[in-house]
Amino acid sequence: MQKRRIAILGSTGSIGTQALDVVRRHKDLFDVRLLSANNSVELLAAQAREFDAANVVICNESRYSELKSLLQGCEANVFAGVQSLCDLAASADVDMVLGAMVGFSGLRPTLAALEAGKIVALANKETLVAAGSVVMRTMRKNNACILPVDSEHSAIFQCLLGAQGNALVKVHLTASGGPFRTWSREKIASAKASAALKHPNWDMGAKVTIDSATMMNKGFELIEACHLFDLSPDMVNVVVHPESIVHSMVEFEDGAVIAQLGCPDMREPIALALNFPARLPVGNRKLDFAQLGSLHFEAPDPQRFPNLELAKAAFRRGGNIPCVLNAANEVAVKAYLNDEISFYGISDLLEHCLNGATFVAEPGLDDIFATHEETVRKAQELI
Ligand code: MG
């Protein structure tokens, strides 16, 4: 059997390393054509050696010589910069691209892969938040395909495999509620980033863990779901489910709800996307229902977690406004991680940027980049 030739963009991050763990368990199925990282040269070099990667890209060009010397005597071709990443992700010897970069930086390489008609396993939700219409249009125009890696969207996708052409009427998007789910607003207000980084269920990178604590992650996922499954925001119901066992659900006209369940482990949706449609064992824990006993569900609290409503409103305004939201959030999360702003300083900054944004109704790619850069600049000034 021919191995699937894969490119992993962002291989040293949380999703990237978990994807390589899947590959490690199934080396007979995958041929690693490309690995990339932003800055982590040591880990990237170690991965390139372990997986015999054909090509390796370090996005931060100033670290090229370091990577080159770490990979001395290794057969991998070494490149630097985002343009190389775009070219290699689009090259003919790649079947599938895993988009696991963090934030807006994933947009350009994701679009390059889609333009080349690749199957893109997409974990980088910010590309869909910032430029969902452009991304989906590019996918359709080039007969490319996006397979969701985000656990909720993988769940929805899996539930829809049994839909037999029946239209869904609602998606129930589950949220863990994050580490501050049971905290009072006062206590959350003074919470430092170190507390927010302790996620109860999921092992994730710093950016998405903070987004999860503010529930911006769920706001982004709502937007992501609307783009991926062609839904209006009214069709997406966010429900807090602290155990993170039900990964999401779809509801049909007759009231029937189909859910996808599993222990929280990102390797499961990653493996399904990488090897779709065949499932693979990934060494994760299996559900023991008797031991679980019960599962809980509750409504999200907009008073304590205002970002979810901000995201919904931004998506309803449409145009380049979700791009503003994403850019402002990237700056705000970084500032919160550096203890420069408070927890609710994140929402304040977002509101400021959203209120002051210049509206572009039907943004092209240039408008998206201009909006991102302008918002980042404004948000940094505000801090
Ligand atoms: Mg998720």
Question: Can you give a write-up of this model?
Answer:
Helices cover about 45% and strands about 15% of the residues. It is of the alpha/beta class and about 375 residues long. It has 3 domains: about 140 residues, Rossmann fold (3-Layer(aba) Sandwich), CATH 3.40.50; about 140 residues, no CATH class; about 70 residues, Orthogonal Bundle (Rna Polymerase Sigma Factor, Chain: A). α6 links the parallel β6 and β7. A 7-stranded parallel beta sheet has the order 4-3-2-1-5-6-7, sandwiched between helices. Strands 9-8-10-11 form a 4-stranded mixed beta sheet, covered by helices on one side. It contains 17 helices and 11 strands. α1 packs across α12. It binds magnesium ion. The site of magnesium ion (MG) has 4 residues, from α7.
Outline of the structure:
The protein has 383 residues and is α/β, with parallel strands linked by helices. The chain has helices spanning 14-25, 41-50, 64-70, 82-89, 107-115, 125-141, 151-160, 185-189, 193-196, 206-214, 216-229, 267-274, 289-292, 307-317, 321-337, 343-355, 365-382; strands spanning 4-9, 30-37, 55-58, 77-80, 96-99, 119-122, 145-148, 168-175, 236-240, 246-252, 257-261.
Which compounds are bound in this model?
magnesium ion
How does the major sheet shape up? Answer: 7 strands, parallel
| CATH-defined architecture of the largest domain | 3-Layer(aba) Sandwich
Protein structure class: alpha/beta
Count the E strands.
11
Strand ordering within the main sheet: 4-3-2-1-5-6-7
CATH topology of the largest domain: Rossmann fold
- The helix count comes to 17
User: What amount of the residues lies in strands?
Assistant: 15-25%
- CATH class bucket of the largest domain: Alpha Beta
- How many domain modules? 3
What is the radius of gyration?
Answer: 20 Å
Give the distance, in angstroms, between the N- and C-terminal Cα atoms: 55 Å
Order of helices and strands: EHEHEHEHEHEHEHEHHHHEEEHHHHHH
Would you tell me the overall average pLDDT?
97
Regions with pLDDT < 50 over 5+ consecutive residues? none
CATH superfamily of the largest domain: NAD(P)-binding Rossmann-like Domain
**Mass-distribution shape:** globular
Q: Roughly how much helix do the residues carry, as a percent range?
A: 40-55%
